[in-house]
Amino acid sequence: MIFGYARTSTAEQEAGLEAQKRDLSLNGCERIYAEQISGSSTNRPELTRLMDNMRSGDVLVITKPDRLARSTSDLLSIVNELKGKGCELIVLSMGGQKFDTSNPTSKLMLHMLAAISEFERDLMKERQKEGILKAKKEGKYKGRKPIAKMQQETIRKLKNEGMSVTAIAEKLKLSRMSVYRILGC
């Protein structure tokens, strides 16, 4: 079976997620797993579900390496897990190249792609940090809005109604830690 995996970091990137799903469908993916969650998150439920469903002979198709993983080590770990299951990985941004990590050339290319993706991410973070510092000096930076604090009444109401912290966090799209912080636990 040919599986596809699409991911964006935030819900605001809906168009990017839809474009990935479209490209995966056009490239023969029979089942697509998609989620909007940070690539550096250790809890990616759709990726976990996908990996659990893959069997020997299956193929995983992604649009770009950074959609699957944020770091070289994470990408290589996923590739090794796929290889251990007897599965293949196809990266569309590399002209649909199959990455068989037993092949030295493919292994080198995968390492290079992962390193470049990680490098790009680090550069982006550096530019963001510089922009924030400049905005702070100019008095324009206010920081991120306190999303959990804006919902503290709702959080307390749901907790008083007997809802668990995990359920509240999922319902309001917050981290469990934010809910705990508001509740003073």
TrEMBL record:
It holds the Pfam family HTH_7. Residues 1-139 form the Resolvase/invertase-type recombinase catalytic domain. It comes from the Bacteria. InterPro entries: Homeodomain-like_sf (IPR009057), Resolv_N (IPR006119), Resolvase-like_N_sf (IPR036162), Resolvase_HTH_dom (IPR006120), SSR_resolvase (IPR050639). One of its GO terms (molecular function) is DNA strand exchange activity. PANTHER family: DNA-INVERTASE FROM LAMBDOID PROPHAGE, RESOLVASE HOMOLOG YNEB. Belongs to the site-specific recombinase resolvase family. This is DNA resolvase. It comes from Acetobacter senegalensis.
